[in-house]
Structures are given as structure tokens and as C-alpha cells.
Amino acid sequence: MRKSAPFRGLAAALVVVLVATGGLAATALLVPAQQQQQQGGGVSEPARWDKVFGAKQPRYRTEPNDFLDRSLKRLAGEKWLAGGTAIDLACGDGRNALLLAQRGFATTGIDVSKVGLDKARAAAAQKGLTLDAREADLFTFDYGVEQWDLLSVIYFNPALTIADKLKAAVKPGGVIVIEGQGSEHQGGGPPKETLFKPGQLLKAFADWRILAYEDGRFESDWNLGEPTHVVRLLARKPAK
Ligand SMILES: C[S@@+](CC[C@H](N)C(=O)[O-])C[C@H]1O[C@@H](n2cnc3c(N)ncnc32)[C@H](O)[C@@H]1O
Fold this sequence. Notes:
Blueprint: H1 10-13, E1 14-17, E2 27-30, H2 45-54, H3 66-77, E3 84-89, H4 95-102, E4 105-111, H5 114-127, E5 131-135, E6 148-154, H6 163-169, E7 170-181, H7 200-204, E8 209-220, E9 223-236
Parallel strand pairs: 3-4, 3-6, 4-5, 6-7
Antiparallel strand pairs: 1-2, 7-9, 8-9
Helix pairs in contact: 2-5
């Protein structure tokens, strides 16, 4: 199995219909992951990720994401934000949701993988942390409006297609933390069309305060080994 295997079929969760109307207009039609079958293989998206999180030898970084860790330290140090409500989208086995809980956030993690969520719950119990780990499709989840002090999306680029919904869900003065593969990343990863293009994250959060933006060649948590193209954003919604 190549490293790319965990990501195969993400394209199946994100059905993109391109409609050419004289120029390059595009319409994205999102279909809930639970209803999707991997093209040709008949393996559902949740089942595929269950296998990834059930593997004896994890092929991803099992420690918390470094950018999220640095961001939390900075937010607390500069007194932007220390604690509150946090939601980690596509939380997997909870490595980042647990960090948020550890740093004092009342944390919810959502994912479609039962195995990943069970691992997250077990790790929370073992560490004596409280984590609300929910089985949910992030494309259809009800985030509410101005509900969260912090929203994180670590290595799930397709979530940017619902950026407006996610921005609305963050409280004024709250933050979003994003890390994912950039457009020059090669090899395993999310669907090519969701690799972050030059300035794409900055454009999506142009009306927020950009506290940090890193675009470079770093080791990706989900493509261990040689550095690849990774993009990171820490942005703060203006306070009212
Ligand atoms: C590359 S992993 C990243 C996991 C975690 N964020 C991390 O960095 O460790 C992608 C995750 O997205 C989850 N996922 C895929 N489609 C999803 C969906 N529609 N809704 C919620 N989670 C989804 C998978 O189960 C998997 O845990």
C-alpha cells in the first residue's frame, strides 16, 4: 500500500461538476461522505479511514500537529485566546483534538471514522481529558453561527469548499487554524483540485486578521519523509 492510499477516494466524497459558461465558472456539488462509494472499489469513505486508523503501524504523525501547537502557545501568550470552545474537523484519531482539550478548550471532534473516533475517546479517557468525539460528516454537520472560539482543519483540504459556513460558525474574536498540502505537493494526498493554490487561503480569509501564514516545503504529517509543499494559516475573525 502506498502512502497515498488513505486519500484515494476523497474525490468520491467531493463530487465536482464543472460547468463551462463561456469562461471558467465552476459549481461544486458536495455529496455526504456516508453516501459515497469509492469509485470502482465499493469501499465507503468511512470504511477506508477505519482501516487507516486500525493499522498496527500508523503511517502518519501521531503527535499533535506542530503548527496547531505553536498557534495555541502564541494565542495564549499574546492573550488573543486561551480556552473556550473548539471544534476539530476531520479529527481522525484525535491527536489534535486532544491537544486542544489539554490546553483548556471544551473540545468537539468530528469525523466519519468510527475506529478513529474510538481511538480518540480511549486516548481522552486514558489522559483524563474530556472530548466530545462525534461521528459526523463535516459537509453536512450543523456548526451553528458564532458558536466556536477555535475551529481547526488539519489535513482535510476539501473543507475549504465550505469556508463561508465555517467562517460564520466562529465567534467574533475567534480563530481558525488550517494546515494542508499545497498545489505543488506530489504523491499521496487529497484530490488534486483541493490542493491549496497560491494565496487561496489568504483570499478566503481576506476579511479576517491573518496572524500567521506559512507556505513552504515542510514535512507533511500525512506524507512522512521528504519535505513537500504545505500551507498553514492562523486567522482571527474580527471582534465586534
Ligand atoms: C488525512 S486524515 C486527517 C485526520 C486528522 N485531522 C489529523 O491530521 O490527524 C483525514 C480525515 O478526514 C476524515 N474524513 C473524511 N471525509 C470526512 C467527512 N466527510 N467528514 C468528516 N471527516 C471526514 C477521515 O476519516 C480522516 O480522519
